[in-house]
Amino acid sequence: MTESITPALDPRRWRALAFIALAQLMVVLDGTIVNIALPSAQADLGISDANRQWVVTAYALSFGGLLLFGGRIADRWGRRPAFITGLIGFAAASALGGAAVNTGMLLAARALQGAFGALLAPAALSLLTVMFTQPKERAKAFGIYGAISGGGAAIGLLLGGLLTEYANWRWTLYVNVIIAVIAVLGAVFEIKEPAGSRNHNRLDIPGIVLAGAGLASLVYGFNKAETDGWGSATTLGFIVASLVLLAAFVVVQSRTAAPLLPLRVVLDRNRGGAYLTIGIAVVGMFGAFLFLTYYLQVVLGYSPLKSGLAFLPMVVGMMAGATQVAVRLLPKVPTKLLMVPGALIAASAMLILTQITVGGSYFTHVLPALLLLGFGMGLVFMPAMNLATHGVRPQDAGVASAMVSTSQQVGGAIGTSLLSTIANSATSNYAKGHAAGVHSAADRTALGLSAMVHGFSVAYWIAGGLLALAALAAGVLINAKPQRGGHGEGENITGGVEDAVPVLAH
């Protein structure tokens, strides 16, 4: 006679989810909250225009470059200790940044934030992976987590505007200390990591160096493309270097006995498709944040706080898509039947935004587009994050989770630089083509605004095309069936077909 040995479910798992989600919100919103405060910080600390971008880039480089390492540390050291350490380190780095007295101190703090964020983000997601193993519960947990991951950037814009306008730019960093203290207390009392899920293999040092250098070079190369152009020696040099380093990383991973990133994690058709879909979707989605912020503030004259409030409908749409629709349908329909329509709905939102004008209204174009974008991305993010960590060995949950964040980080870097370049080029060409009739200062101002909006519109066409490409990637690559049932119903949730471990007892 055979029977399945089922581990008991942790009764505190839902309370633990609240603190895991809070930590993830802190990491995600930090990517945008500082952007709103940057002009004030620049004036206060005397940051030069040349160094201004490093306040954002320092965080992105250390975060993107160390994600896989952070994921493997979480697997080896334990997700709960990694989670708590990441929170404490992130809070300390935020306090250092908030107290910054010069440019160097702020940049160092931002780099430290990124480093501890690279430990915290995969630890948070992998905790969900090993704590929620029954499909229905897992769908609910990932619905909440996915909505926060997608909507956190918009919340960052709101919170950044609120703190900058009514407090001080330094509070955009100090607020992390408050969030982290709450999350640490929750982790100490409510989070318990399942036993036997650690990876005790030795660390793959060559893999760590190659992955870190390759990803950091890729992120930096795309950041330089935005400022120096795609044809600059610096841009091309770093992008080529990243491709060489990442190719070498793949070779090393295929030959080492204990790889940093086991290739089976990404070569699985469904997981690989999920990573690719997330990455492409984020490339397109970043256009909404990047250009709508400028459109609302520069063209429509919104304050930073009002701009942040204007993004809230997107968060509402995302919560509805992820926690109300995707959660209910994931156990009933194939995963791609959520992700493909979701990406196409998000693409339609971009098509609406191509129609924005200088004299336009928030309610005619921006509001419906944000609702559709949020709803569509909720249908993409929640199933994709679930699928990206579904079926991995518990010992690889951290590095599989890190790949989700890596897809988002690389997609964000590419989206920012690619769409900015396209928009700037279209703006410049429009201004040159319509310069003949400009005679007064008022004419020049009007032309400048019209050219800017035209550039945004062109970029939104490209963003819509990229989201359609994400839909195609999901439709072609992903063939996962509905995730029904739970333990003892014929499915080993924590192990895929290639990873399955017999649990037979006589």
User: Whole-number average pLDDT?
Assistant: 85
- CATH topology, which one? Growth Hormone, Chain: A
Q: Using the alpha-carbon principal axes, give the shape.
A: globular
What is the percentage of strand-forming residues? under 5%
Query: Helical content, roughly?
Result: over 70%
Determine the CATH superfamily.
MFS general substrate transporter like domains
Helix and strand run: HHHHHHHHHHHHHHHHH
Please indicate the count of domains. Answer: 1
Domain Major facilitator superfamily (MFS) profile: 16-482
Subcellular location: Cell membrane
Membrane topology: Multi-pass membrane protein
Protein name: MFS transporter
Structural summary, described in words:
The termini are close together. The chain has about 500 residues and is mostly helical. The N terminus and C terminus are likely disordered. It is about 75% helix and about 0% strand. It contains 17 helices and no strands. It is globular. It has one domain: MFS general substrate transporter like domains (Growth Hormone, Chain: A), CATH 1.20.1250. It comes from Catenulispora yoronensis. Pfam families: MFS_1 (PF07690). Its main location: membrane.
